[in-house]
Amino acid sequence: MIINFETHASNERTFLAWVRTAVAIVGFGLATARLGSHPSPLWSEILMLGAGAAVILIAWLRMQHIHKRIDIADRLPDDSSAADLFLLLLVVALFLLLGSFTVHVG
Questions:
Q1: I need a surface site. Which of 17, 32, 49, 51 has the fewest CB within 10 A?
Q2: Cα–Cα distance for residue pair 25/6, rounded to 1 Å
């Protein structure tokens, strides 16, 4: 059995939740653009995909950081709030981008 398996599995589930969130927001934004009567500009689609990729990259880096911290036997202070805040800001930025996308297309 892997040491701290439950904690590692929880860490990976959190990462996968961030990936699902990014994919859902990007997918919804691109679908909204395709359903509009006017073609959307290419830059807005690239920006939406880039923002989703940034969320996934930061979530992966966070998962790797926490993975290393789980394996350390010493008790460490919780320093993940900065990464969590940055991920939250990126999700808010994705929603704002999605909103501007919808206004622009609609």
A1: 17
A2: 29
C-alpha torsion angle, residues 27, 34, 45, 41 (rounded to 10)? -170
Place of tokens 């950081």: 65
pTM value is: 0.70
pLDDT in tens, 2-44: 788 898 899 999 999 989 988 988 887 778 777 777 777 787 7
**Rounded to whole angstroms, what are the CA distances from 30 to 4, 42, 61, 95?**
39, 11, 26, 12
Report d(CA 44, CA 40) in Å as an integer.
Answer: 7
Q: d(Cα 25, Cα 34) in Å, to the nearest integer?
A: 14
